[in-house]
Amino acid sequence: MKSNRSAGGADVLAEAWAEWVPVLAASAMTTAESPHWAAHRIDAALATIAPLTARHTAGVRPRLERVLAALAAERVGVQHFASVSGYGHGDQGRVVLDRVFARVLQAEAAAVRLQFVSGTHAIAAALYGVLRPGDRLLALTGRPYDTLEEVIGIRGSGQGSLAEFGISYDELPLTAEGLVDETRIAEALAVPTRLVLIQRSCGYSWRPSLRIAQIERLIAQVKAIQPACDVFVDNCYGELVEEREPTAVGADLIAGSLIKNLGGTIAPTGGYVAGRAELVEQACCRLTAPGIGSEGGTSFDLNRLLFQGLFLAPQMVAEALIGAELVAQVFSDLGFAVNPAPGAPRSDVIQAVRLGDPEILKQVCRAIQAASPVGSYLDPAPAPMPGYASELVMAGGSFIDGSTSEFSADGPLREPYILYVQGGTHHSHSALALERALQALQGPARLTPES
User: Fold this and answer.
1) Residue 15: what pLDDT?
2) How confident is the model at residue 446 (pLDDT cuts 50, 70, 90)?
3) What are 274's strand-pairing partners?
4) Which of 75, 97, 239, 297 is most solvent-facing, going by the fewest CB within 10 Å?
5) Is-contact 354 412, C-beta < 8 A?
């Protein structure tokens, strides 16, 4: 088979196919004879990860207990589902929702707002709220997520980035293994620093996501060197994955999106900031205006969805984790590099697969889109996205537009062509989408075994 695909993608799959064909033939089920071969592969992977499925399912109970305890402690009632119009002053539902989230996130205070249009917006509000001209921001986890580059001023100009407001930025490069270079933290903090940024999730990079114990260790090192330096953690994709949140281990401020973990797949939009009360208020002053801060902003009578989404979140996170294990097992069986490996410790719901080939990336995203409940007829095509340096191909046929708590996949169209899969209301949906992906990769004129 002649192909211009890279060895990391097509050749790996062809080699895997060469091993499968004799096995399938021996059982009288060659790919030509059986329409169910892909389903059999998924079933085999599900059987392999059964102990992991049980472990993630068991994790729902303590996290749900945490949510229920918060709802009970704040005496949530149906009266809190309503909100006020206009300025949003005196919105009791919003006030109670903030306190519930603060308890769940193990923080002193929280602000949950539909006015945050994304996780990036919530993070930007936190950074602009805390930092002042002349301050220094230091990223300990290498280059931040693509959408923060223009916020910081790494890329683009003329839009009011932190750099344009006189805030300096430095980053500590990751090691060759994609780990935080802890041996150089003291060197990086030799200069007075106002805020340290830690990105919990891998983002669009090939590195392990940070476990809470690692974040705790990093925070301790920062505080030992510069006690007055605050630590901010981008908590996107990580909520409720572990027993503790970054704010429980010393993070001064965290932020995230409601159309990721904590929205439970039903929050229509929004984000949150949580941490020390004065820092949360500073972030809110950036979202609204000084003097208004957290006191303004209507909830548009959508508080019920935010309360209910939080109640559903532990189960939805567990399903996403099971789906991630399944993706890892299926593609690992195919011979692709996956991060993390099946059964490896997880600190977020993202599963990365190094496909090594743009055509394979597009084919898998098309298959996942075709298995989506919304827009299954659409053909995802690479396109520019606001805030991203590279074109993206995205499969996101979700009920909430852009939701990554629902099953979705995407990847930047740049080497080494990594697929990022996240979310899922039920791992059965992940299994069905993966079955279609296997069929797409095996089909004629795509990737078939050498004859």
Assistant:
1) 56
2) very low
3) 110, 254
4) 75
5) no
